[in-house]
Amino acid sequence: MEAEGSGRSPAQRRWRLGGGRLTVVCLSLLLILSLAGGAWLGASDEPEDTGRDSIYKYLTLWEEVLRLIRGSYVEETDGRSLTAGAMDGVTDALDPFSVYVPASEVESYRAAREVGRRHSGVLVLKERGTAYVVAVDSGSPAETAGLEPGDIVAGINGRSSRAMPLWELRRQFAGPVGSELNLELVRRGNSVEASLTLGEYEPLPPEFDEIRGVGVLRIPSFGSGTASQVEALLDGYAGDSLLIDLRGVAGGSAEAAYAVAGLFAGGELGSLIDREDRKLETFEGAGGLYSGDIDILTDRSSQGPAEILTAVLRQAVDADHSGESTFGYAGTLRQIELPNGGGVLETTAAFYTDPEGERLNRRIRVSNDGRLGVLAFRERDDGSDPVLDEALDLIWGILEAPAEPNQQ
Protein backbone atom coordinates (compact mmCIF):
# COMPACT_ATOMS: atom_id res chain seq x y z
CA MET A 1 0.00 0.00 0.00
CA GLU A 2 1.19 3.46 -0.81
CA ALA A 3 1.80 5.75 2.16
CA GLU A 4 -0.13 8.97 2.52
CA GLY A 5 1.73 12.02 1.38
CA SER A 6 3.72 10.05 -1.17
CA GLY A 7 2.99 12.80 -3.66
CA ARG A 8 1.83 10.50 -6.43
CA SER A 9 -0.94 11.82 -8.61
CA PRO A 10 -4.05 9.74 -9.41
CA ALA A 11 -2.68 9.16 -12.93
CA GLN A 12 0.61 7.82 -11.56
CA ARG A 13 -1.15 5.58 -9.05
CA ARG A 14 -3.51 4.28 -11.73
CA TRP A 15 -0.52 3.53 -13.96
CA ARG A 16 1.36 1.65 -11.24
CA LEU A 17 -1.42 -0.34 -9.58
CA GLY A 18 -3.51 -3.19 -10.96
CA GLY A 19 -7.11 -3.81 -10.05
CA GLY A 20 -8.26 -6.63 -7.74
CA ARG A 21 -7.40 -10.26 -7.29
CA LEU A 22 -8.81 -11.24 -10.66
CA THR A 23 -6.15 -9.02 -12.24
CA VAL A 24 -3.47 -10.94 -10.33
CA VAL A 25 -4.80 -14.19 -11.74
CA CYS A 26 -4.91 -12.76 -15.26
CA LEU A 27 -1.34 -11.51 -14.98
CA SER A 28 -0.18 -14.92 -13.78
CA LEU A 29 -1.99 -16.53 -16.67
CA LEU A 30 -0.49 -14.08 -19.13
CA LEU A 31 3.01 -14.89 -17.89
CA ILE A 32 2.51 -18.55 -18.72
CA LEU A 33 0.81 -17.96 -22.04
CA SER A 34 3.24 -15.26 -23.15
CA LEU A 35 6.03 -17.83 -22.89
CA ALA A 36 4.00 -20.24 -24.97
CA GLY A 37 2.41 -17.75 -27.34
CA GLY A 38 5.35 -17.15 -29.64
CA ALA A 39 5.68 -20.83 -30.40
CA TRP A 40 1.90 -21.28 -30.67
CA LEU A 41 1.26 -18.50 -33.20
CA GLY A 42 4.57 -19.21 -34.93
CA ALA A 43 3.73 -22.87 -35.44
CA SER A 44 2.70 -22.19 -39.04
CA ASP A 45 6.42 -21.78 -39.87
CA GLU A 46 7.00 -25.49 -39.16
CA PRO A 47 5.93 -28.47 -41.28
CA GLU A 48 2.19 -29.12 -41.07
CA ASP A 49 2.30 -32.11 -38.71
CA THR A 50 4.82 -30.49 -36.34
CA GLY A 51 2.77 -27.28 -36.28
CA ARG A 52 -0.43 -29.15 -35.46
CA ASP A 53 1.29 -31.02 -32.59
CA SER A 54 2.71 -27.75 -31.26
CA ILE A 55 -0.67 -26.02 -31.35
CA TYR A 56 -2.39 -28.88 -29.53
CA LYS A 57 0.36 -28.95 -26.93
CA TYR A 58 -0.16 -25.29 -26.02
CA LEU A 59 -3.92 -25.53 -26.21
CA THR A 60 -3.68 -28.39 -23.72
CA LEU A 61 -1.51 -26.19 -21.48
CA TRP A 62 -4.11 -23.41 -21.71
CA GLU A 63 -6.94 -25.80 -20.85
CA GLU A 64 -5.05 -27.12 -17.81
CA VAL A 65 -4.24 -23.62 -16.51
CA LEU A 66 -7.87 -22.53 -16.92
CA ARG A 67 -9.07 -25.65 -15.08
CA LEU A 68 -6.68 -24.98 -12.18
CA ILE A 69 -7.80 -21.36 -11.89
CA ARG A 70 -11.47 -22.26 -11.88
CA GLY A 71 -10.94 -25.01 -9.34
CA SER A 72 -8.59 -23.18 -6.97
CA TYR A 73 -9.54 -19.49 -7.02
CA VAL A 74 -11.94 -18.44 -4.26
CA GLU A 75 -13.83 -15.91 -6.37
CA GLU A 76 -15.89 -16.81 -9.41
CA THR A 77 -13.93 -16.33 -12.63
CA ASP A 78 -15.13 -15.50 -16.11
CA GLY A 79 -13.65 -17.81 -18.73
CA ARG A 80 -14.28 -15.33 -21.54
CA SER A 81 -12.39 -12.49 -19.86
CA LEU A 82 -9.58 -14.85 -18.90
CA THR A 83 -9.31 -16.02 -22.50
CA ALA A 84 -9.38 -12.45 -23.84
CA GLY A 85 -6.70 -11.41 -21.36
CA ALA A 86 -4.58 -14.41 -22.29
CA MET A 87 -4.84 -13.62 -26.00
CA ASP A 88 -3.83 -10.02 -25.31
CA GLY A 89 -0.77 -11.36 -23.52
CA VAL A 90 0.09 -13.71 -26.35
CA THR A 91 -0.03 -10.98 -29.00
CA ASP A 92 1.82 -8.56 -26.69
CA ALA A 93 4.63 -11.13 -26.52
CA LEU A 94 4.91 -11.21 -30.32
CA ASP A 95 5.46 -7.49 -30.98
CA PRO A 96 3.83 -4.16 -30.02
CA PHE A 97 1.76 -4.10 -33.23
CA SER A 98 0.11 -7.51 -32.96
CA VAL A 99 -3.37 -7.41 -31.43
CA TYR A 100 -6.19 -9.77 -30.54
CA VAL A 101 -9.71 -8.50 -31.28
CA PRO A 102 -12.76 -10.31 -29.79
CA ALA A 103 -15.55 -11.32 -32.15
CA SER A 104 -17.93 -8.62 -30.93
CA GLU A 105 -15.45 -5.86 -31.79
CA VAL A 106 -14.03 -7.02 -35.13
CA GLU A 107 -16.16 -4.71 -37.28
CA SER A 108 -15.63 -1.60 -35.15
CA TYR A 109 -11.88 -2.27 -35.03
CA ARG A 110 -11.76 -2.70 -38.80
CA ALA A 111 -13.33 0.74 -39.14
CA ALA A 112 -10.80 2.17 -36.67
CA ARG A 113 -7.94 0.68 -38.70
CA GLU A 114 -9.23 2.40 -41.82
CA VAL A 115 -9.09 5.74 -39.98
CA GLY A 116 -5.69 4.97 -38.47
CA ARG A 117 -3.98 8.16 -37.29
CA ARG A 118 -5.83 10.50 -39.65
CA HIS A 119 -7.95 11.96 -36.82
CA SER A 120 -5.27 12.15 -34.13
CA GLY A 121 -1.76 12.16 -35.57
CA VAL A 122 -0.46 10.03 -32.71
CA LEU A 123 0.86 6.47 -32.66
CA VAL A 124 0.07 4.78 -29.33
CA LEU A 125 1.25 1.25 -28.56
CA LYS A 126 1.06 -1.00 -25.54
CA GLU A 127 3.79 -3.20 -24.08
CA ARG A 128 3.58 -5.17 -20.84
CA GLY A 129 0.32 -3.47 -20.00
CA THR A 130 1.67 0.08 -20.42
CA ALA A 131 0.26 2.36 -23.13
CA TYR A 132 2.72 4.94 -24.43
CA VAL A 133 3.14 7.47 -27.22
CA VAL A 134 5.61 6.37 -29.90
CA ALA A 135 5.33 9.32 -32.30
CA VAL A 136 3.39 12.53 -32.87
CA ASP A 137 2.88 13.83 -36.41
CA SER A 138 3.88 17.43 -37.08
CA GLY A 139 0.87 19.70 -37.56
CA SER A 140 -1.56 17.12 -36.14
CA PRO A 141 -4.24 17.46 -33.42
CA ALA A 142 -1.96 15.48 -31.09
CA GLU A 143 0.84 18.01 -31.52
CA THR A 144 -1.63 20.84 -30.89
CA ALA A 145 -2.73 19.08 -27.69
CA GLY A 146 0.89 18.94 -26.51
CA LEU A 147 1.48 15.18 -26.66
CA GLU A 148 5.13 14.11 -26.82
CA PRO A 149 6.89 10.86 -27.75
CA GLY A 150 7.55 8.84 -24.62
CA ASP A 151 4.42 10.00 -22.79
CA ILE A 152 2.74 7.20 -20.84
CA VAL A 153 -1.01 7.26 -21.40
CA ALA A 154 -2.33 6.46 -17.91
CA GLY A 155 -6.00 7.21 -18.56
CA ILE A 156 -8.51 8.23 -21.23
CA ASN A 157 -11.74 9.99 -20.27
CA GLY A 158 -11.44 8.81 -16.69
CA ARG A 159 -10.66 5.16 -17.51
CA SER A 160 -7.35 3.49 -16.76
CA SER A 161 -5.48 2.49 -19.91
CA ARG A 162 -4.34 -0.69 -18.20
CA ALA A 163 -7.89 -1.98 -18.49
CA MET A 164 -7.96 -1.23 -22.23
CA PRO A 165 -6.62 -3.76 -24.72
CA LEU A 166 -4.71 -2.39 -27.68
CA TRP A 167 -7.68 -2.62 -30.05
CA GLU A 168 -9.73 -0.36 -27.75
CA LEU A 169 -6.91 2.16 -27.39
CA ARG A 170 -6.63 2.42 -31.15
CA ARG A 171 -10.38 2.80 -31.49
CA GLN A 172 -10.36 5.67 -28.99
CA PHE A 173 -7.79 7.61 -31.04
CA ALA A 174 -9.65 6.86 -34.29
CA GLY A 175 -12.98 8.26 -33.09
CA PRO A 176 -15.22 10.65 -35.00
CA VAL A 177 -14.00 14.12 -35.92
CA GLY A 178 -14.80 16.52 -33.09
CA SER A 179 -14.55 13.90 -30.34
CA GLU A 180 -12.60 15.01 -27.30
CA LEU A 181 -10.22 12.76 -25.37
CA ASN A 182 -9.22 13.88 -21.88
CA LEU A 183 -5.86 12.25 -21.34
CA GLU A 184 -3.94 11.58 -18.15
CA LEU A 185 -0.26 11.32 -19.02
CA VAL A 186 2.92 10.53 -17.14
CA ARG A 187 5.86 12.46 -18.61
CA ARG A 188 9.32 11.93 -17.17
CA GLY A 189 7.81 11.11 -13.78
CA ASN A 190 5.35 14.01 -13.73
CA SER A 191 1.58 13.92 -14.14
CA VAL A 192 0.29 15.88 -17.16
CA GLU A 193 -3.27 16.41 -18.34
CA ALA A 194 -4.06 16.99 -22.01
CA SER A 195 -7.23 17.49 -24.04
CA LEU A 196 -7.08 16.06 -27.56
CA THR A 197 -9.81 17.05 -30.03
CA LEU A 198 -9.86 14.65 -32.98
CA GLY A 199 -9.91 16.21 -36.43
CA GLU A 200 -8.73 15.81 -40.02
CA TYR A 201 -5.28 17.15 -40.89
CA GLU A 202 -2.87 17.03 -43.80
CA PRO A 203 0.59 15.49 -43.24
CA LEU A 204 3.29 18.08 -43.78
CA PRO A 205 5.40 17.81 -46.95
CA PRO A 206 9.20 17.47 -46.95
CA GLU A 207 11.18 20.63 -46.25
CA PHE A 208 14.70 21.63 -47.29
CA ASP A 209 16.97 24.35 -45.95
CA GLU A 210 20.67 25.11 -45.84
CA ILE A 211 21.85 25.57 -42.25
CA ARG A 212 25.46 26.49 -41.54
CA GLY A 213 26.41 25.40 -45.06
CA VAL A 214 24.78 21.95 -44.76
CA GLY A 215 21.64 20.92 -46.61
CA VAL A 216 18.99 19.73 -44.13
CA LEU A 217 16.15 17.64 -45.55
CA ARG A 218 13.25 17.04 -43.18
CA ILE A 219 10.79 14.27 -44.19
CA PRO A 220 7.78 14.35 -41.79
CA SER A 221 5.88 11.50 -43.51
CA PHE A 222 6.09 9.00 -46.35
CA GLY A 223 3.30 9.03 -48.92
CA SER A 224 2.80 8.46 -52.63
CA GLY A 225 4.17 11.89 -53.59
CA THR A 226 7.11 12.06 -51.16
CA ALA A 227 9.80 10.91 -53.60
CA SER A 228 8.88 13.48 -56.26
CA GLN A 229 8.75 16.22 -53.61
CA VAL A 230 12.23 15.28 -52.34
CA GLU A 231 13.56 15.20 -55.91
CA ALA A 232 12.24 18.70 -56.57
CA LEU A 233 13.64 20.10 -53.30
CA LEU A 234 17.15 18.77 -53.95
CA ASP A 235 17.27 19.73 -57.61
CA GLY A 236 20.47 21.72 -58.08
CA TYR A 237 21.83 21.22 -54.54
CA ALA A 238 25.59 20.54 -54.77
CA GLY A 239 26.77 21.00 -51.17
CA ASP A 240 29.33 18.69 -49.60
CA SER A 241 26.91 17.22 -47.04
CA LEU A 242 23.21 16.46 -46.74
CA LEU A 243 21.52 15.76 -43.40
CA ILE A 244 18.23 13.81 -43.61
CA ASP A 245 16.16 14.38 -40.46
CA LEU A 246 13.83 11.44 -39.72
CA ARG A 247 13.13 12.11 -36.05
CA GLY A 248 9.58 11.37 -34.97
CA VAL A 249 8.64 9.76 -38.30
CA ALA A 250 6.61 6.60 -37.69
CA GLY A 251 4.39 4.75 -40.11
CA GLY A 252 3.51 5.60 -43.67
CA SER A 253 4.24 3.80 -46.92
CA ALA A 254 7.17 1.41 -47.17
CA GLU A 255 7.02 1.72 -50.96
CA ALA A 256 7.43 5.49 -50.60
CA ALA A 257 10.52 5.00 -48.41
CA TYR A 258 12.12 2.74 -51.02
CA ALA A 259 11.23 5.27 -53.72
CA VAL A 260 13.05 8.01 -51.78
CA ALA A 261 16.02 5.69 -51.18
CA GLY A 262 16.08 4.95 -54.91
CA LEU A 263 16.77 8.61 -55.63
CA PHE A 264 20.16 8.27 -53.91
CA ALA A 265 21.09 4.59 -54.48
CA GLY A 266 20.93 2.36 -57.55
CA GLY A 267 20.34 -1.34 -58.00
CA GLU A 268 18.47 -3.68 -55.68
CA LEU A 269 17.63 -1.90 -52.43
CA GLY A 270 15.70 -4.48 -50.43
CA SER A 271 12.91 -7.00 -50.28
CA LEU A 272 9.75 -7.94 -48.43
CA ILE A 273 10.19 -11.53 -47.19
CA ASP A 274 7.60 -13.69 -45.44
CA ARG A 275 8.12 -16.21 -42.66
CA GLU A 276 8.82 -18.96 -45.20
CA ASP A 277 11.72 -16.87 -46.59
CA ARG A 278 9.84 -16.19 -49.80
CA LYS A 279 10.43 -12.85 -51.53
CA LEU A 280 7.08 -11.17 -51.92
CA GLU A 281 8.41 -7.96 -53.43
CA THR A 282 11.78 -6.50 -54.45
CA PHE A 283 12.62 -2.80 -54.60
CA GLU A 284 15.14 -1.13 -56.91
CA GLY A 285 16.43 2.38 -57.49
CA ALA A 286 18.24 4.42 -60.13
CA GLY A 287 20.25 6.74 -57.86
CA GLY A 288 22.12 9.81 -59.05
CA LEU A 289 20.17 12.57 -57.32
CA TYR A 290 22.99 13.58 -54.96
CA SER A 291 26.65 12.54 -54.78
CA GLY A 292 27.89 14.18 -51.57
CA ASP A 293 28.08 12.78 -48.05
CA ILE A 294 24.77 11.82 -46.46
CA ASP A 295 24.06 11.87 -42.72
CA ILE A 296 20.84 10.54 -41.16
CA LEU A 297 19.33 11.75 -37.90
CA THR A 298 16.85 9.49 -36.06
CA ASP A 299 15.34 9.03 -32.62
CA ARG A 300 13.37 6.29 -30.85
CA SER A 301 10.22 7.38 -32.68
CA SER A 302 11.73 6.69 -36.11
CA GLN A 303 9.88 3.59 -37.24
CA GLY A 304 8.83 1.67 -40.35
CA PRO A 305 9.55 3.65 -43.55
CA ALA A 306 12.04 5.86 -41.70
CA GLU A 307 13.96 2.73 -40.71
CA ILE A 308 13.85 1.41 -44.28
CA LEU A 309 15.36 4.62 -45.64
CA THR A 310 17.99 4.67 -42.87
CA ALA A 311 19.06 1.07 -43.44
CA VAL A 312 19.21 1.33 -47.23
CA LEU A 313 21.27 4.53 -47.23
CA ARG A 314 23.63 3.20 -44.56
CA GLN A 315 24.29 0.12 -46.66
CA ALA A 316 24.10 1.46 -50.21
CA VAL A 317 25.83 4.86 -49.94
CA ASP A 318 27.66 4.47 -46.62
CA ALA A 319 25.59 7.17 -44.91
CA ASP A 320 26.51 8.18 -41.36
CA HIS A 321 23.80 7.75 -38.72
CA SER A 322 23.50 9.76 -35.51
CA GLY A 323 20.92 10.68 -32.89
CA GLU A 324 19.18 7.76 -31.17
CA SER A 325 18.66 4.16 -32.24
CA THR A 326 15.36 3.60 -34.04
CA PHE A 327 12.18 1.94 -32.75
CA GLY A 328 12.73 -1.43 -34.46
CA TYR A 329 9.75 -2.38 -36.58
CA ALA A 330 9.39 -2.54 -40.36
CA GLY A 331 6.94 -5.23 -41.37
CA THR A 332 3.48 -5.97 -42.71
CA LEU A 333 0.41 -6.97 -40.73
CA ARG A 334 -2.36 -9.40 -41.65
CA GLN A 335 -5.60 -10.14 -39.82
CA ILE A 336 -6.25 -13.82 -39.18
CA GLU A 337 -9.80 -14.91 -38.44
CA LEU A 338 -10.29 -17.23 -35.47
CA PRO A 339 -12.96 -19.96 -35.16
CA ASN A 340 -14.78 -17.95 -32.46
CA GLY A 341 -15.26 -15.02 -34.84
CA GLY A 342 -12.47 -12.95 -33.34
CA GLY A 343 -9.27 -11.98 -35.08
CA VAL A 344 -5.53 -11.71 -34.54
CA LEU A 345 -3.57 -9.01 -36.32
CA GLU A 346 -0.02 -10.30 -36.58
CA THR A 347 3.21 -9.59 -38.42
CA THR A 348 3.51 -11.92 -41.40
CA ALA A 349 6.45 -10.45 -43.35
CA ALA A 350 9.44 -8.19 -42.73
CA PHE A 351 11.53 -5.89 -44.89
CA TYR A 352 15.16 -6.78 -45.55
CA THR A 353 18.12 -4.98 -47.07
CA ASP A 354 20.09 -6.63 -49.85
CA PRO A 355 22.52 -8.18 -50.59
CA GLU A 356 23.45 -8.87 -46.95
CA GLY A 357 19.82 -9.45 -46.00
CA GLU A 358 19.69 -7.39 -42.79
CA ARG A 359 16.25 -7.81 -41.21
CA LEU A 360 14.57 -4.49 -40.38
CA ASN A 361 12.36 -5.74 -37.54
CA ARG A 362 14.96 -4.73 -35.00
CA ARG A 363 16.40 -1.43 -33.82
CA ILE A 364 18.91 0.25 -36.11
CA ARG A 365 21.66 1.45 -33.82
CA VAL A 366 23.38 4.75 -34.44
CA SER A 367 26.92 4.69 -35.78
CA ASN A 368 28.17 7.59 -33.61
CA ASP A 369 28.98 7.42 -29.88
CA GLY A 370 25.34 7.97 -28.87
CA ARG A 371 25.93 11.31 -27.19
CA LEU A 372 23.13 12.98 -29.17
CA GLY A 373 20.60 10.80 -27.37
CA VAL A 374 21.34 12.64 -24.12
CA LEU A 375 20.16 15.90 -25.71
CA ALA A 376 16.78 14.49 -26.80
CA PHE A 377 15.10 15.21 -23.45
CA ARG A 378 16.22 18.81 -23.19
CA GLU A 379 13.41 21.29 -22.83
CA ARG A 380 13.41 23.67 -25.78
CA ASP A 381 10.50 26.03 -25.27
CA ASP A 382 12.54 28.75 -26.99
CA GLY A 383 12.27 26.89 -30.31
CA SER A 384 15.91 25.77 -30.32
CA ASP A 385 16.91 22.29 -31.49
CA PRO A 386 20.05 21.16 -29.62
CA VAL A 387 20.05 17.72 -31.26
CA LEU A 388 20.13 19.22 -34.75
CA ASP A 389 22.81 21.70 -33.67
CA GLU A 390 24.96 18.87 -32.30
CA ALA A 391 24.45 16.80 -35.46
CA LEU A 392 25.64 19.74 -37.56
CA ASP A 393 28.65 20.10 -35.25
CA LEU A 394 29.49 16.46 -35.94
CA ILE A 395 29.24 17.02 -39.68
CA TRP A 396 31.43 20.11 -39.51
CA GLY A 397 33.93 18.20 -37.40
CA ILE A 398 34.22 15.68 -40.19
CA LEU A 399 34.37 18.33 -42.91
CA GLU A 400 37.08 20.31 -41.13
CA ALA A 401 39.18 17.31 -40.07
CA PRO A 402 42.59 17.32 -41.78
CA ALA A 403 43.03 14.72 -44.49
CA GLU A 404 45.07 11.71 -43.51
CA PRO A 405 48.49 11.59 -45.20
CA ASN A 406 48.89 9.07 -48.01
CA GLN A 407 50.50 5.84 -46.91
CA GLN A 408 53.51 5.09 -49.10
Description:
There is one protein chain. By secondary structure, the protein is α+β, with helices and mostly antiparallel strands. The chain folds into three domains: 85 residues, no CATH class; 93 residues, Pdz3 Domain, CATH 2.30.42; 193 residues, 2-enoyl-CoA Hydratase, Chain A, domain 1. 35% of the residues lie in helices and 24% in strands. The strands form four sheets. Strands 1, 11, 12, 15 and 16 form a five-stranded antiparallel β-sheet that branches. The chain has a five-stranded mixed β-sheet with strand order 8-9-10-13-14, with helices on both faces. The chain has a four-stranded antiparallel β-sheet with strand order 5-4-6-7. Strand 2 and strand 3 form a beta hairpin. Helix 2 runs antiparallel to helix 3. The chain is globular. The termini are far apart.
Number of domains: 3
Given helix and strand content, the structural type is alpha+beta
Uncertain parts = 1-5, 14-59
What's the shape? Answer: globular
CATH-assigned fold name of the largest domain: 2-enoyl-CoA Hydratase, Chain A, domain 1
By CATH reckoning, the class of the largest domain would read: Alpha Beta
First-last Cα distance: 73 Å
Features:
408 residues, alpha+beta, Pdz3 Domain, 2-enoyl-CoA Hydratase, Chain A, domain 1, 3 domains, five-stranded antiparallel beta sheet, five-stranded mixed beta sheet, 12 helices, 16 strands, 35% helix, 24% strand, disordered N terminus
Summarize this entry quickly.
The chain has helices spanning 10-16, 20-41, 48-72, 79-94, 106-115, 141-144, 166-173, 226-234, 254-264, 305-316, 372-375, 386-400, and strands at 99-101, 122-127, 130-136, 152-156, 159-160, 180-187, 190-197, 207-211, 214-218, 241-245, 266-274, 279-286, 293-298, 320-323, 331-337, 343-353. With 408 residues, it is an alpha+beta fold.
